[in-house]
Each structure stands twice: as structure tokens, then as C-alpha cells.
Amino acid sequence: MHFSDLLSTASKSLQRNIAKSTLTMLGIVIGVGSVVLMSSVGASMEKVILSQISSLGSRSMVIFPGSEQEGGASQVFAGHDSLTFDDIERLEQLTTIESVAPIVFMSGPVKRGREESSAQILGAHPNFFSNQNMEAAEGRLLDIYDNDRAARFAVLGPDVKEELFGESDPLGKEITVGDSSFTVVGVAQALGSQFFQNADDRVYVPLSVARQATGQKYANYITMLATASFDVAFADVQGLLRDRHKIENPEDDPEKDDFIVHSSEQANAILSSVSLGLTMFITTVAAISLLVGGIGIMNIMLVTVTERTREIGLRKAIGARPRDILLQFLAESVALTLLGGIIGLVFGLVFAYLIAIIAQSFLSTYVFAVSVPSMVASVVMAALTGIVFGISPARKASLLDPVESLRYE
Amino acid sequence: MASLLSLKGLHKSYFNEEIETAVLHGIDLDIEKGEFIAIMGPSGSGKSTLMHILGFLDRPTTGTYHFLGEDTAGKNDDELAAIRATKVSFVFQAFHLLPRATVLENVLLPLLYHPGIAPADRENYAQKAIASVGLSDRATFFSSQLSGGQKQRVAIARALVTEPELIFADEPTGNLDSASGLQVMEVLEKLNQAGHTIILVTHERTTAEFADRIVHIKDGLIESDTRTHERRRAGADVKLK
Ligand SMILES: Nc1ncnc2c1ncn2[C@@H]1O[C@H](COP(=O)(O)OP(=O)(O)O)[C@@H](O)[C@H]1O
Ligand SMILES: [Mg+2]
Predict the structure, then answer these.
(1) Residues from chain B contacting residue A402 (CB–CB below 8 Å)
(2) A302 plus A338 within the same structural domain
């Protein structure tokens, strides 16, 4: 029997039993479909997070006040004033640190006439913009002269601009931040969400202005850029702050510190452990669904062999060898699982695409992404399932006695 | 005429859970190429059992079976399958057509297992076989759309398509009304006249009379072996309607 005969015989048999073939495939379709769907959503989320990390740059670091509690939750309230401007001066002197940008939050509504925005107000050191690789979409960002002069200038996040000005030109216009009036000098480029916070719903004012307004002697957080590698800078920053805050912490217990250093490299490490977890989860789901699907295939193939006993007897009578029958039924079960896998793949992709469309309305940086290795692996596994679970029914068919099979009612 | 097959002292017993059922008790039989032979006998006498052994679907318990001059003892399953694929064919009482396949697909089926006929030639062989049973206009019909007599003619075409040495027909008219039964027998008769060797198994006298030679079996033994008429295949005097 030629290989092409095997394929055409299998496909004809499946077509003749189309309803049953469809039902048989269902388990595999659902299994492969859900794996493709989940792996695509996983890949999309990974891209979302990666795009945030890369927008920050790999040398970028952030220091928050407070201590990291067990389980990773940060406790900002105790010691929220731990990052003093004296600390910041010393950080600036570290050779492993290229630039330091303290942030001081200001409160108070942001208004333009009767339009009001609930934007967050950041008193940002001009280094903040370069640390973040930010650029102006309109006008300009804040510079060191604005800071030195404590100029009442504001840069709007794109969402705030939209809220207060709509389509009209905001440059040179006045807005009210807290009690005082500011001139809009620029609009920041869209950042999307950063760590699931909207980074576009912000108003930036010079750090010096925010310090005057709040009288704060400490920063709410600090962004920094390491000169070279994060690792060395991290040790320096940690050593300096522990020294200045008189913290004995040789065992590096994050609960003892009163500051938390984050970096995009750490985020990368977290991301890869998350994606490893996701991969293991998807693999488990795939294994279970293929096992269930495979057992379904085996049952239906056993029933099929029984139902087609006379056909098997006839094929043997006209010269089919046991191996021809074995291969025929094996080809049928593999064709079923492979086809089921491909249909599942298509469904999975379609659903993942629909999810991407919906997700984009919540999370503008969400992109439709696929995991090619997961797709290939799940379809290959589906085909293998056909072999593993098809072999016993196929063997049973190949061993049937021709005379008894022909007599089977 | 050249000898096609030869049986000597053939015995067949079935063993079910240690219980032996002896069916054939020592059959001696020689058949030559071109013969049209009917094996007759009451139901349960062992006709089908004999045919299954002759057609390599089953093996004798003891005794020798020479086919085309060769001893068939010791052939393995694959070798027997190869003989069934190329040298012998069957027509069964119950037709055994694939119901959801067309006439052409049914007739093509044996060629899947025939190593000597190239895939490109299959359709020609099948159309020729279908034409020789007079069903060319039904080639694209599904077998479930045919009458019983037509189904059996498709089964004959399927038996013919590999151009075998020997065609077995086990009660080919058993499921048919007498008119279609007659038609089927006429097709077999015509095939014999064209040179095919046919072994017909039947318990009906009228059906057996199409053959040149009738072998009676009773209780697993040959009771009689008679030539009914002179070999017709060489004679041009017998005309078909
Ligand atoms: N697999 C089997 N096991 C036991 N006995 C069998 C088997 N096959 C056939 N027989 C017996 O062998 C005898 C002959 O059967 P068979 O050759 O089919 O008869 P026929 O075709 O002449 O009607 C019957 O008595 C039948 O019951
Ligand atoms: Mg019988």
C-alpha cells in the first residue's frame, strides 16, 4: 500500500463518518485551542510588560521609600519620608550613578476654567524625562533653568491635555494647579500604562516648585540611571542608604531596609519567572486536555473498529496485510488529532485576536501576539496523541481474523 | 490444462476452548485453470470452510495444498495476503461493499493492495471491470443506491479488477431474487468463457448447473465429483443472450 493511498483511504473514511469524526476531534480542538489561546494571551502580556521595561531602558532604576514586606508587597507608609534631599545629594556623587531625578507629589485640582482634571501632579527633576527616555509631543519638556528659576511652567500628559483642551492648542495657555497659575509649555508623548498605572494622566511641574509648595524635605520617589551595569550601582545605592540611615543589614533582608530599589532588570527577572510559571501552567493544561482528548479518541476508534469489522474482513480478503490495516487506522486517528489540532489552532488564534481587540480598549499597549513554539508544540502533541492512543485500536483491527470479521453482524 | 490447485488429505478442525470441531475430514481435489466448478452440499457441510482454505483466508489443520505448483504450507500471513491481493478473489453472499462509497471506489479498493498495478492505471482497470459486468453507467452511484443484483455485479467487478487466477463465489445468489440471481450467474458464466477459473459454492441445484463440474460435499467429505457438460469455454457453439 502506497503512502498516498494511506492518506486518501484515511481521509475518505473520515469523510464517510463525518459526524463521528467531528465529535471525536472536539476534545483535541478544545485542548489545542485553549493552549493556543492562553499562550497567545501570555505572549501579549509579556509584550505589554516588556514594552514598559524597554521604554524605561535597561539602566533605569527607581527607589521608593518604605520596606518590602514578605510576599513582595511594599509598605510605603512606614518611613515614607526616608529619602531625604541630603541622601539625594550623596546619591548624585556616586560614580556608578549617571543621573538622579527626585519626584515630589503635589496635591490639588488641575483646572482650566470650568474644566477640571484629576491628574496626578509630579514635581519632577528635569533628569526625570531623560531617565525615562521621554520626549515632548508638543512644545517642550521642563529643563534645568525652569527648575532653577522655579518657573510656574507645566507639561501635560496627553490625557490631561485632551481633558482640559480637547483639540485646541494648549501651548502658552494658563492652567491652575492647586492655588497657583501655571503656563503650559508642552505636552508629553503618550506612554500608555506603566506597571498598570496610566502614565498619561499626569501634570509635570518643576521639582523646585513642588518642594516650595509642599515644604517637603524628602522625595516621594527617585528615578536614576546607572552609569554602566545595574548590579554595581545597586550595591552602591544600597550601601550608601543603609549607611546614612544607620541600618545594619548584612543578610540583605528587604524588610529591614527603609527603601526599595527597583530596576528594569529585576522586572525582567520577575517577568521571566512569571512566564515560566505560565508556560508550566499551559503545559499542564495541554497535557491534561490531550490526555482526555486522547482517551476519547481511543474509545471512539475502538468503537469504529468494531463497527467496521466487516470492512476490515473485506480488506483482508482482498489482500490487505495486518500492517496495512494497522497503518490505515493509525492514519485515521492521527488525521483526526492533527486536523483537530489545526482546527483548535485556528479557533485559538481567532479567540486570542478577539481578546486582543477587546483588551486594547482597556490597555492601549496590548498587542495581539502569538507563541509560535506553543502553537507548533500543541499541534505536534495532538498528532502524537493520535499515534499513542490510536495504536491499540489499530492493532486490534489488524489482528482480526478475516473469516470471522466477514461473518460479523 | 495446467493444474491450478491440488488438495491431498485436507483436514480442518476448529478449536474453541479445547473443544475440537472437525469440519473437513480428508479432502482430495484437483482443479485446473479455466474450470467452472460448483461445490454443493447441505448447509453446515463445510463448503465455506473449504473455500476459505482454498482462498487463503484460513489454513488447513493437516493435509497439503499446492497452489500453482507450490506448497502453501509454511507461508506467513503477509505471503497469504499477497496471494489474496494478486491471485484469488472473492464474491460473497452478503456483497460486502462499502456502503458510503461509489461503485468506482468499491472496485478500486483491491488495487490499493496490489503491488503490480501502478496507481495511474487503476482507474482504467476499474472501468474495464465495471464495463464487463455491464455497470458503466452506474460507476458514480453510491453502492447503497443499487439493487441487490447490481451490488453483486459490483462485487464481481471488484473480484475481477486484479485479474486473478481464480475467483471464488460463496452463495453469490443467496441474497438475490431469482431474476437477479440468474443475471449474476450469467455474468460468472461469461467470465468463465473469457478464461477465468471460477469456484462456486452453493446449495442450489439450479445455480450449480451453470458449472461444468459439480463436487458434492457431505459431512466434510467429497461425496461425488461429476462433469456435467463438456468444457464450453473452448467451444464457440454456446452463445450468450
Ligand atoms: N470458527 C468456527 N468454530 C467452530 N465451528 C465452526 C467455525 N466455523 C464454522 N464452523 C462449523 O463448521 C461447519 C461447516 O461450516 P461452513 O463451512 O460454514 O458450512 P457451509 O458453508 O457448508 O454451510 C458448521 O457446522 C459450522 O458450525
Ligand atoms: Mg457457507
Answers:
(1) 57-58
(2) yes
Are A319 and B85 a contacting pair at CB < 8 A? yes
DSSP A83: S
pLDDT tens string, chain A, 409 residues long: the values are: 788 888 888 888 888 888 888 888 888 998 899 889 988 888 888 887 777 666 666 688 888 888 776 544 555 554 678 899 999 999 999 999 999 999 999 988 899 988 888 899 999 999 999 888 889 999 999 999 999 999 999 999 999 999 999 999 999 999 999 888 999 999 999 887 665 677 889 999 999 999 999 999 999 999 998 887 777 888 889 899 998 988 888 888 877 888 888 877 666 777 777 778 887 888 788 888 888 888 989 998 999 999 999 999 999 999 999 999 999 999 999 999 999 999 999 999 999 999 999 988 877 778 899 989 889 998 999 999 999 999 999 999 999 999 999 998 7
Domain-embedded: residue A24? yes
Evaluate: CB of B16 within 6 angstroms of ligand 1.
yes
- What superfamily would CATH give domain B3-227? P-loop containing nucleotide triphosphate hydrolases (3.40.50.300)
Last residue of a domain, one of A211, A244, A277: A244
* CB pairs < 8 Å spanning A and B: 71
Mutation target for A interface from B48, B75, B96, B161: give the one with most A CBs within 10 A: B96
Q: Could you say which of A313, A314, A319 has the minimum Cβ distance to residue B114?
A: A319
ipTM of the complex as predicted: 0.93
Residue A350 lies in a domain: yes
Q: Which chain B residues contact residue A322 at CB under 8 A?
A: 77-78, 81
Domain with A330, as residue range(s), is 3-53+269-407
The Cβ-side half-sphere exposure at A192, using a 13 Å CA radius, reads 20
Distance of CA A48 to the CA centre of its chain: 5
Task: Please tell me whether the overall predicted TM-score, pTM, comes out greater than 0.90 for this model.
Answer: no
In this structure, are A29 and A117 located in the same domain? no
Cβ B44 under 6 angstroms from ligand 1 = yes
Residue B226 near residue B214 (C-beta atoms within 8 A)? yes
Number of domains in chain A: 2
User: What is the C-alpha R_g of chain B?
Assistant: 18
Q: Are residues A190 and A310 in the same domain?
A: no
Residue A343 counted as domain residue: yes
Question: How far, in Å, are A394, B6, B46, B122 from residue B184 at the CA level?
Answer: 36, 28, 24, 24
For ligand 1, say whether the CB of B226 is within 6 Å of any of its atoms. no
Q: Which of residues 380-409 of A touch B (CB under 8 A)?
A: 402-403, 406
Strand, helix or coil for residue B213:
strand
Asked whether residue A27 is domain-assigned, the answer is: yes
Q: In chain B, where are the structural domains located?
A: 3-227
What is the whole-number distance in angstroms between the Cα of residue B44 and the centre of ligand 1?
A: 6
Q: How far apart are CA A177 and CA A109, in angstroms?
A: 6
